[in-house]
Design a protein that fits this description.
The mean pLDDT is about 95. Helix 1 packs across helix 3, helix 9 crosses helix 11 and helix 9 packs across helix 12. By secondary structure, the chain is an alpha/beta fold. It has a six-stranded parallel sheet, with helices on both faces. Strands 11-10-9-12-13-14 form a six-stranded parallel sheet. The protein has three domains: about 200 residues, 3-Layer(aba) Sandwich (Rossmann fold); about 90 residues, N-(1-d-carboxylethyl)-l-norvaline Dehydrogenase, domain 2; about 140 residues, NAD(P)-binding Rossmann-like Domain (Rossmann fold, 3-Layer(aba) Sandwich). Helix content is about 45%, strand content about 15%. The structure holds uridine-5'-diphosphate-glucuronic acid. Uridine-5'-diphosphate-glucuronic acid binds next to helix 9. InterPro entries: 6-PGluconate_DH-like_C_sf, NAD(P)-bd_dom_sf, UDP-Glc/GDP-Man, UDP-Glc/GDP-Man_DH_C, UDP-Glc/GDP-Man_DH_C_sf, UDP-Glc/GDP-Man_DH_dimer, UDP-Glc/GDP-Man_DH_N, UDPglc_DH_bac. Pathway: Nucleotide-sugar biosynthesis; UDP-alpha-D-glucuronate biosynthesis; UDP-alpha-D-glucuronate from UDP-alpha-D-glucose: step 1/1. This is UDP-glucose 6-dehydrogenase. Belongs to the UDP-glucose/GDP-mannose dehydrogenase family.
Amino acid sequence: MKVTVFGSGYVGLVTGACLAEVGNDVVCMDIDPGKIDLLNGGGVPIHEPGLDVLIKRNRAAGRLRFTTDLDLAVAHGLFQFVAVGTPPDEDGSADLQYVLAVARGIAERITDYRIVVNKSTVPVGTADTVRGAIQAVLAGRQAAVEFDVVSNPEFLKEGAAIEDFMKPDRIVVGTDNPRTTELLRALYAPFNRNHDRLVCMDIRSAELTKYAANAMLATKISFMNELANLAECLGADIEKVRVGIGSDPRIGYHFIYPGCGYGGSCFPKDVKALERTARDVGYAAQLLRAVEDVNERQKLKLYEKVEGYFKGDLGGKTFALWGLAFKPNTDDMREASSRVLMEALWAAGAGVRAFDPVAMAEAGRLYGERADLVLCESPEAALRGADALIIVTEWNMFRSPDFDLIKASLSHPVIFDGRNLYDPVRVKALGLDYYAIGRGD
Ligand code: UGA
């Protein structure tokens, strides 16, 4: 089938590459010529495991093309996937300008039936807005062309996006036209392992499903972080509590890991946007507000521990920082806890020696040259000359470190662990002070 994907960001590239992989003829369109040149030259603008291989294979097979040519893009696909960004406005609501620009671009050019499939995370009601924008342009052109607008939210996790797309647990499709549902069912048939994964519903419910999923997951994390803080006050160990509650299948073990706050391009933005949507319709979403507040506070948790340990005297101190990305297997530092921590340390006059397996270039891009940030080539190098070690991201390579080396390198033998990677008893027995999240210290 012929597919066009607008927006060659993380969602668009994964969608385009995976749809090409199962045999579709895919054109990915982006307005950024630099990005398209890079892709046409064999490069990949984001770090996502497996994406480079998929893009290479499908480009070579002629099933995946990249272009800035809007005419070609609109003429190509029966399915016109919209996967452009919806950055938050100052008030937290999603900015739809890029989505609407694509919709108008399509409307100005279509000559026969097209399905506009919205993959971007957009507020409930956006499909109606998109439909209205297309209708207005078509009316101006005096063109009577049939089209449908569909909501098909993505549930991809950065770092596991290819796997999530190729083996989805569900494919949510919101339509108001049974014919479109059947066409999407055919497009997604290769991804239906064992049983039909399509969950069909009306458009508004599909739009809300995306926010509901992310808000629920963010709520689980903030709930656990709240309990972790309480455990600290009560002298309990949240890791034992986690296992104790996770064994109840109604709660489950997934996504109840306490830590130094959630980050990334999705949870913070989507929780805020949903709360804003609620406010717009006159509903005070108190729980969502609290989820957000708990998370903001949690991102400062490591800083507070460090400050407490050094009795507020951080000026001139140097901290080794392991992990900059908002989570492992990505170089994404959007809304990362590391940024809140580093900025607080710098404000207190401290310096940082940081290491991350893939996010070093991103950190350099974000912060540039500065005297209080040294980007080191290894975890061990980050320790050199540091007063203490702080761990922010749970990369596998940090899980079993040389504790003797850590102890010998630091002027104060202490680890602040924002992801509860180690057994406190063992670390303390090795002669290191150890402060984790919700573990009674
Ligand atoms: C999230 C959702 O998990 C995806 O299903 C969704 O499609 C995506 O947003 C999106 O809307 O595009 P992602 O942002 O890639 O995916 O990252 P997650 O793996 O969900 O992690 C988010 C944050 O929560 C990370 O900072 C992570 O460290 C934190 N987290 C996660 C915890 O603190 N505890 C946990 O138990 C799990």
